[in-house]
Protein 1
Amino acid sequence: MGSFSIRFRTRLLPKRSIELGVLVVTLILIPTIYMFEMFVVIPTVWKSWPLFQNIIYAVGFFVFSNIVTNFVGLITTCTQVPQEVMSTSRPSMEWQFCDACLSYVPPRSWHCKYCKVCILKRDHHCLFAGCCIGQFNHRFFIMFLIYIVIGTLYCVVCESIFLLKTVDLVTPLAPLKIIFPAYAYLTGLETLSNECSILLYVVNWIALCGTSWMLHSQICMCLRGQVTHDKTVDSFTYDLGKTQNIKEVLGNRWYVAWIFPFISSPLPSNGLEWYTADTWRIKCQKRALKTQ
């Protein structure tokens, strides 16, 4: 199966106001937390370790650049079923009819009520990106989650040390400073700068817990060759083995795809046709016989 040409989305802004709001907050928080870590936390926590501090700067920039570029790839890559392949006649028995589009669509393609189009290998509609996760941007989504987890985990650890050095948390009123930062500031219990630090610390904890759960779910489905629909109906129809399942998401060059999102890693499937577990096993058996 050859690869299908990747296209870019013509409309990048989400259609729903709640998604637009979440997107704006996300685009503000990511660089804000990065700048806070680089210019406030690192110089304080690693002040006595200048060499290690420089290493953290380099690694931090690498993680941040991957978060940003994977997010860009996620929201700019078109995942919908191309109009030229949609047909009122059924190309094969695996294709299914979409009542909304009034057309037959490829297997593993599902209609999104928010995007109002059918999506190739649809996993789910992402609230943060305001678009669907499908065949061509699934790689970006998983790598975005991986680097967010790495980044927020580091932030939580370093900010814990930072807050212990700069904020008095060994008092009975410490929970008040964390749970109600605005109240703590307005009542003079803590300074504005310290409360902002605490607020970012809480945000990082929430992001770490939320993205860790999503990443765990995505990795489990990826290793089983599933998308959300397959998991819901407990289907393993497209389970081709762990290695091939990873390639179906990250591409044939999956071993370097993690370094940077725009490293070429062509997908083995074109999004229109899919090997099932049975047809893939037959193909592997034929390949093994040829090599004997």
Protein 2
Amino acid sequence: MWKNGALILFGLCFVEAQIHLIDSRCYLAEGGSAENFLASEDAAVGSVLGVLSINGDPKSDISLSLREKDSPVTIASLSKNIILSKPLDKEGLEGPASVYVNVICDRRMSNDPSFLIPVNIRVTDVNDNSPAWVGAPYFVNISEVTIVGTRYS
């Protein structure tokens, strides 16, 4: 009976060792293939636009960097934070209207190839541009029974 007990114990230890060898560093936590964030065009330079949901710890077992060197965002050192480094502008006048970068994730203590994780940042608009009326003033007579949504030119 002792032999059987020893065999069962050995089998459990073997299974536990196999589970421990599974390595999920550099994969997105939800199993996706890309990260998407929204950022307001009035976000301050230096603010955090989002936190990457990559498995692994940048302080110990992964390193993160951007493939694009002239990007309006950076990755904060030893973190997963995407930081705004240049102003954004939904109209594209004073900065980019959207940002698309690739994050390079390297597993430390491994010879495995790097993982490339696309990150898309969509810029949301704020009411920061007053309207310009060409040829103003305009005079229009509209009947009070006009259907809502009717266009006039």
